[in-house]
Amino acid sequence: MVLLAGEVDTEVRAELLARYRRIRGETEQLVDPLSAEDLQLQSMPDASPGKWHLAHTSWFFETFLLRPHLTGYRQFDPAFQQLFNSYYNSLGTPFSRPQRGLLSRPDLDTVFAYRDSIDRHMAELLSAPHWRPELEYLLTLGLNHEQQHQELLLTDIKHAFSINPIAPAYCNSEDDTDDGDSFPGEMRWLDIAGGIYSIGSEGEHFYFDNESPAHRQLLGDFRIASRLVSNSEYLEFIQDGGYREPRLWLSDGWSWLQKAGARHPLYWREREGYWYQFTLAGLQPLRGAEPACHLNFYEADAFATWAGRRLATEFEWEVAACLLRRPDQLAGANLLEKRLFRPAAAAAGETQFLGDLWEWTSSAYEPYPGFRASDDAVGEYNGKFMCNQKVLRGGSCVTPADHIRMSYRNFFYPHQAWQFTGIRLAGDAV
To answer: What percent of the chain has pLDDT over 90?
Structure first.
């Protein structure tokens, strides 16, 4: 079929609408186990209430697609422009992030009515005669943005539940086996030849702007571990005094450690000589073979130093993952099919690269050569945060599988651990 200028194939529109409805529906399925009280919780400034996530993702479609592109569209509530703006300062002054949990109004029913209204109008926009092919990018960006908030919704409610003494569960564990004393398969060292490699994304498939432009990167020979560091291995670090030895820690990391008083990962608990871990299924015995989870960059770097290794750069990680991952990793999976929402132990001989934990790299979050944020409000999406943060790669057990890419660059501040973050060791060639 040959399309005239400004036309969009009706089949393409139907596919876009089906994907829109699927992803929006998955968000609402994720909040099904939660009460209105649960969805109001904000346990720390870095987290947001589930109700806010539900509204903000709708605000994104209203702000960037409906208001500028749907003829005759009227805002659901003009006050929402400020209440559910995250950080787009060019669009007004956002409501204070640390105080989102104080927004008891609008109530949850109103937020769901807002979502329903946005969904109806998005279906109308997709069928409008003035729909333009270039709007497909904004729609796809909005859907990837919603998937980011699906992940945040789960990490945020996990943190909120973790501080409750009754240790409530978001979901039931379907695996009641206690392998707390088990050990993972052998950690193999995979040798990667140095050279000039292409890093980043370009072409017709979707990617965030911070993944571009694709560019050449010179790498030396290096080695990288076949799997993530396990709970049992991290427990050895603790028992060997890792949290008491300043020589293992970066200066900022040691300062964080003294201030926070940390002696173990965020969600670990010791009870009468036994170790437990708070999970989305509540408090569970620590499973030794599973990847060590919810570690910040300082902890990851200290463990690597203790182990006589280092963290990979983000460029080493991308090259190794592209060369070594199993072809079937993530095939056909999605967020809701995982159900247990926890990282899996690597099978013997497996190269474990995608979909278990976000992996800290040693790389600062900086622009790629030639990067330039767009001049419109969407340009505030990633570029403005390229300061004082570290890059993570690989996606996690709560990242929608069709949202993960080899080139995906996540980023957090070094002290943050409430996301599903872990450690992969690397080293120079022997």
So the answer is: 82
